């Protein structure tokens, strides 16, 4: 067994208590054959501004360095008559270009129309009760007002902004799990995403539930108990919903001389219907939507993992995973639309700390959470339109590989002159990774 392998099998105690430099030294010495090179990779991504670097270091635990994503912009978004340039943080080639192209296309056809359907967010207290449901319902009705009273100190600021606890219900789940019930609470968190607010309220609900149960005379007589299992918000927010749509006469649906507008619109609508009924297609179709959505969610300091989880659950809400977007042609008008759940915030969290997040929000005009929902939904629909348009006309690879070619060239350390020659050669030629590499090698030989 090598010396390096021996090191790698050893656990380390107190790693979190080491300084940043000590952590880096341990990582470099333990896992890398060239520790000095490993340390160089880490340190070259540090920000020269020490205060800014310290800010980034304190976002998470055991920070070693920064992991960069390209930060781009997609201009020409016309949403409800207002123009936006939308920030996008993403590493995937062609996403920003595709969103920009789709935005320009629809800006010339009236732009995106958006509507907030609802902004309800959800949290639950999961608990077990060993009595019958009638007993528990009587108890819940008796103490329901206490949940608001006991959380008043946590909710008063949110109430001043017009938010707070909307409702609390008792849900019987004993048909699925013995003795299992929920407190199902709904919230309005205004411009904050509200995760900490919701979880703080839920944990107090749990304390109120247990404390009141210990004082409730009918439970004491029957020796009934309530056991709280956990209290947590849900990232499934089917009632925190925004609708986005675009429409145009079919005759005006093509800017490509090789296909007429009506034929393109019909092919496009059929492609979307396939994604509605075929889960294998729907997953990739929706991934394209999330390319646009996640990039803006990240750029604005929101939680893309929560958004992803909630959106994909919503896509399967009817029992089969299906397309998030829909298309139709009626009376010569093509309409393309989507309802999508987006629990977002524009205050709190990284929105007031991360300099680029603050930059993004200012570029968007310092939107409210509801306006940001509409902007991000439009970015998702634009990205979806661009992808389906490529699929039903030129094919997805033509545009994608043109954007990806620079990654291939950089992987093979192409010089500036080599890049120019390769780009010129493939200007009107089919592109693949192997063809690019073969041509690059032919230049070098």
Number of helices: 17
Cα-to-Cα separation, first versus last residue = 42 Å
Q: Name the helix and strand elements from N-terminus to C-terminus, one letter apiece.
A: HHHHEEHEEHHEEHHEEHHHEEHHHHH
Shape: globular
Largest sheet: 4 strands, antiparallel
- Please list the strands of the largest sheet in the order they lie side by side: 3-8-10-9
The secondary structure category is alpha+beta
The low-pLDDT segments are: none
Q: Which percent range fits the helix content?
A: 40-55%
Mean pLDDT across the residues is 93
Find the count of extended strands (DSSP E, 2+ residues).
10
Radius of gyration: 27 Å
Q: Which percent range describes the beta-strand content?
A: 15-25%
Secondary-structure blueprint of this entry?
Blueprint: H1 3-8, H2 20-31, H3 35-43, H4 50-57, E1 71-79, E2 82-89, H5 95-107, E3 113-119, E4 121-129, H6 133-150, H7 152-160, E5 164-172, E6 180-188, H8 195-215, H9 217-222, E7 226-234, E8 240-249, H10 261-277, H11 279-299, H12 304-315, E9 325-330, E10 333-341, H13 355-363, H14 369-392, H15 396-411, H16 416-425, H17 433-444
Antiparallel strand pairs: 1-2, 3-8, 4-6, 4-7, 5-6, 8-10, 9-10
Helix pairs in contact: 2-3, 5-14, 6-8, 10-11, 11-12, 11-14, 14-15, 15-17
């Amino acid at each position: 067994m090598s010396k390096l392998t021996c090191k790698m099998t050893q656990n380390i105690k107190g790693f979190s208590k080491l300084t940043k430099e000590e952590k880096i030294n341990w990582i470099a010495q333990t896992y890398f054959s060239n520790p000095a090179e490993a340390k160089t990779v880490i340190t070259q991504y540090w920000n020269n501004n020490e205060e800014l670097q310290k800010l980034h270091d304190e976002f998470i635990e055991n920070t070693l360095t920064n992991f960069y994503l390209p930060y781009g912009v997609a201009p020409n978004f016309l949403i409800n008559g207002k123009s936006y340039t939308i920030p996008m943080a993403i590493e995937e080639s062609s996403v920003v270009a595709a969103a920009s192209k789709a935005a320009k296309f629809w800006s010339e056809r009236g732009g995106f129309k958006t509507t907030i359907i609802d902004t309800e967010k959800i949290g639950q207290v999961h608990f077990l009760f060993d009595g019958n449901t009638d007993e528990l319902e009587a108890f819940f009705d008796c103490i329901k007002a206490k949940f608001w009273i006991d959380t008043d100190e946590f909710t008063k600021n949110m109430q001043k902004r017009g938010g707070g606890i909307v409702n609390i219900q008792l849900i019987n789940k004993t048909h699925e799990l013995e003795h299992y019930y929920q407190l199902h609470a709904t919230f309005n968190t205004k411009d904050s995403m509200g995760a900490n607010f919701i979880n703080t309220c839920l944990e107090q609900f749990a304390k109120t539930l247990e404390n009141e149960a210990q004082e409730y005379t009918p439970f004491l007589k029957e020796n009934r108990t309530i056991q709280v299992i956990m209290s947590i918000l849900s990232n499934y927010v089917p009632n925190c919903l925004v609708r986005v749509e675009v429409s145009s006469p079919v005759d005006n649906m093509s800017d490509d001389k090789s296909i007429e507008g009506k034929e393109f619109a019909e092919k496009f609508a059929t492609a979307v219907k396939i994604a509605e009924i075929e889960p294998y297609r729907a997953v990739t179709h929706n991934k394209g939507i999330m390319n646009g959505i996640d990039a803006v969610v990240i750029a604005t300091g929101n939680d893309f993992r929560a958004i992803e989880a909630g959106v994909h659950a919503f896509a399967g809400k009817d029992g089969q995973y299906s397309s998030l977007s829909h298309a139709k042609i009626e009376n010569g008008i093509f309409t393309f639309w989507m309802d999508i759940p987006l629990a977002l915030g524009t205050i709190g969290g990284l929105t007031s700390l991360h300099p680029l997040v603050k930059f993004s929000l200012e570029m968007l005009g310092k939107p409210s959470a509801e306006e940001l929902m509409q902007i991000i939904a439009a970015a998702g629909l634009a990205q979806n339109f661009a992808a389906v348009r490529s699929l039903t006309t030129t094919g997805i690879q033509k545009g994608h590989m043109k954007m990806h070619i620079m990654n291939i060239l950089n992987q093979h350390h192409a010089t500036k002159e080599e890049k120019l020659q390769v780009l010129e050669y493939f200007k009107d030629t089919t592109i693949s990774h192997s063809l690019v590499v073969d041509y690059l090698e032919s230049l070098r030989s």
